[in-house]
Write a structure and sequence with these properties.
By secondary structure, the protein is of the alpha/beta class. It has helices at residues 3-16, 36-48, 65-68, 76-82, 86-94, 157-170, 177-199, 201-204; strands at residues 24-30, 53-57, 104-105, 110-111, 116-117, 123-124, 130-135, 149-154, 207-210, 218-221. Helix content is 40%, strand content 18%.
């Protein structure tokens, strides 16, 4: 078994130790390109061996394009303030799965690629379920109080920005690599820095997952 596999298994065991009277709401937060979705995808089948797992992402809760870019295509404040429908995340997922919630939830509201709403069916979560919700800005003030377990995937921008650009190019993004790198610095990195100053996610994490060396991550329990 690789070092990464062992460390992911240890994190899964830590999550399974958390027992509350409603579904456990786990945030997997971090900057673009940190490896949040990969980590959540690795955890899901391990957790599912013991408890039902719900997978959802902030990507299912984008605002419409006109809202996302109303402060300008390169605006860091626009990225932080306007990208996501945070109230829908609360109403569709976090509130129903929380204390006194009815456990009837939906995993998405909007398809940002089609720039159109989606009508996902309502589902009912078992009381012992675990929600794995990955995305950026998950400890912003609007959402911070709703997480039962908060994981921050920590990687320096010098690693995440090139990684995110290569991912976008593989997914058919328009533009040359140099222009995409510049845009990441202007909008995404600067937007994340606004988030760090406001929310201080590392300080409040239950777990910091240092993903600098992907094959040999460090898992720090806070």
């Amino acid at each position: 078994m690789s070092q990464r596999q062992q460390t992911v298994e240890h994190l899964a065991a830590f999550i399974l130790q958390q027992r509350i009277s409603h579904p456990l709401r786990v945030a997997v937060d971090g900057v673009d390109g940190a490896g949040k979705t990969v980590l959540a995808g690795e955890l899901a089948p391990l957790l599912a061996q013991s408890r039902p797992v719900i997978r959802a992402s902030v990507d299912g809760f984008h605002n419409p394009r006109a809202v996302r870019y109303r402060q300008g295509a390169d605006s860091p404040r626009g990225y932080y303030q306007d990208s996501f429908d945070n109230q829908a995340i609360i109403d569709f997922v976090l509130q129903p799965l929380g204390p006194n919630g009815n456990r009837i939830f939906r995993v998405a509201k909007f398809d940002h690629r089609a720039d159109a709403p989606v009508d996902t069916p309502p589902l009912t979560a078992p009381e012992e379920a675990i929600l794995l919700f990955d995305g950026v800005f998950l400890r912003r003030p609007e959402l911070a109080a709703y997480w039962d377990c908060y994981i921050f995937v920590d990687v320096d921008f010098s690693i995440t920005v090139p990684r995110a650009v290569q991912r976008d190019l593989l997914n058919g993004a328009n533009g040359m690599e140099e222009s995409l790198l510049a845009r990441y610095q202007r909008r995404y990195v600067a937007g994340q820095q606004l988030y760090f100053r406001q929310a201080q996610p590392r300080q409040f994490a239950d777990v910091i997952w240092d993903n600098t060396d992907f094959e040999n991550p460090l898992c720090i329990y806070c």
